[in-house]
Write a structure and sequence with these properties.
Layout (H helix, E strand, L loop, with lengths): L2 H7 L11 H10 L35 E2 L18 H13 L7 E10 L4 E10 L3 E6 L6 H9 L7 H13 L6 E7 L1 H12 L2 H4 L2 E7 L11 H5 L5 E6 L15 E3 L16 E2 L2 E2 L1 E2 L4 H15 L3 H18 L4 H5 L3 H10 L5 H30 L16
Parallel strand pairs: 4-5, 5-6, 6-7, 7-8
Antiparallel strand pairs: 1-2, 2-3, 3-4, 8-11, 9-10
Helix pairs in contact: 1-2, 1-3, 4-10, 5-6, 9-13, 10-12, 10-13
């Protein structure tokens, strides 16, 4: 089963079965629906007055919370869905509207910010179940180059605008939501959910029952203190797929739960590929060797550069992406081997200093990868001491 199968077969109410990790993943994918103009906007403008960003959806005339069925607008479908799998995001909306578990959940306080000049892409919304609880969901990265640029900026800049907006948003909506709060998101949305929860005022933080981060990247080293993490101890639920790449980036305090996926490699990043067992995901014992290799590779590579050097590399990378003429960022960064070829070709059309910076960084990455691969091969070929088999082997789910 996947999350769409779950929506089609789980008929229990939230009173009969409490909110669970699959419910969070479902709503995190709804956050990839552009509901501006058809769902009620955030009204607390004071929190965002100082922003130069134009917040178009604050001007929406919609006032009352809406249900998922109210959002089925075929005339909006052409540009309503974003993310890695827009067609599945659409299916997710249809399934939510039909689901007896979710059909009476209401959507409110939608906020969307997009500013190419400030390299900002942010969206969030609140989902309310009666007067019982609310899920505050944050959108992951859309298909824009601006959204992906902000993601890369996280490696050397802290906080990025979307993270600051996430805190403002959570603190702005919390007073008008039920006391019980759940916060979550997928990918960048998971990072924003956790950042907002860690930085929120104690009066808000104390109401948070759980923070879900679904394959969300971590944070720049040293961004949070042990005391910061301690305040949310036991309330962070972190899931990553078997071949996780995105969710293993940078520093994370909470060990992940490893989810079984029907795909492999970067395609596992989509929660639509994650296997569901009952009211939870199907979990594995550990990350794949590929995930561990990528984690070691990227960690060592990033450690070689200062913040200033990393900023120059990211700037050069996006000059090459723009020179390639690409409009859809997901096709670039999820393009596999084609991405390297495309960037190498596009690099010929950027200024010499940026080209040298990018090629040197890619060369460094290749050098580390070759060394780690050689070390891994040597380890596999080395004779291992005999071990007694376990008398009680742990069954794999």
């Amino acid at each position: 089963m996947n999350i769409l199968d779950y929506l089609a077969t789980e008929f229990a109410t939230f009173e009969e079965k409490p909110f669970n990790p699959v419910d969070s993943a479902v709503l995190s994918q709804f956050c990839m629906v552009r509901v501006e103009g058809i769902a009620p906007p955030l009204r607390e403008r004071a929190s965002f007055k100082r922003l130069g960003t134009v917040v178009d959806n604050l001007l929406s005339s919609v006032k009352r919370p809406v249900r998922f069925i109210d959002l089925l607008r075929a005339e909006r479908y052409a540009d309503m869905f974003t993310g890695l799998a827009p067609s599945l995001v659409k299916e997710n909306l249809l399934a939510l509207a039909a689901s007896p578990r979710f059909r009476d959940v209401t959507v409110k306080d939608c906020l969307s910010l997009f500013d190419a000049d400030r390299q900002t892409q942010f969206a969030a919304m609140a989902f309310v179940h009666k007067k019982e609880f609310a899920y505050v969901g944050f959108r992951g990265t859309d298909a824009s180059l601006t959204g992906w640029r902000e993601d890369f900026n996280m490696a050397y800049d802290a906080p990025v605008p979307a993270q600051e907006h996430a805190v403002r948003y959570l603190e702005a909506v919390a007073p008008r939501l039920p006391k019980r709060l759940v916060v979550g998101g997928h990918s960048k949305g998971g990072n924003l959910a956790l950042y907002a929860s860690l930085r929120a005022a104690p009066s808000v933080q104390d109401r948070i029952e759980r923070v879900y981060t679904h394959d969300g990247p971590g944070f720049k080293a040293g961004m949070f203190s042990p005391e910061d993490w301690h305040r949310l101890e036991g309330r962070i639920h972190r899931t990553v797929p078997h071949d996780s790449i995105v969710g293993m980036l940078m520093e994370s305090h909470t060990p992940p739960l490893v989810v079984c996926s029907t795909e492999r490699g970067i395609n596992e990043h989509s929660p639509f590929t994650w296997e569901v067992a009952g009211d939870d995901f199907q979990y594995l014992d550990d990350l794949s060797d590929n995930a561990k290799f990528t984690d070691a590779l990227v960690s060592e590579w990033l450690a070689r550069y200062s913040d200033e050097e990393a900023a120059a590399i990211v700037d050069a990378l996006f000059k090459a992406v723009e020179a390639s003429g690409a409009q859809n960022a997901t096709e670039v960064f999820f393009g596999g081997a084609k991405t390297a070829t495309m960037l190498a070709e596009a690099a010929k059309n950027i200024d010499a200093a940026s080209r040298d910076t990018l090629l040197a960084a890619l060369g460094s990455l290749a050098e580390i990868a070759a060394r780690l691969m050689a070390q891994g091969l040597a380890g596999k070929l080395a004779p291992k001491p005999k071990q007694r088999p376990s008398q009680h082997p742990r069954p794999r789910p």
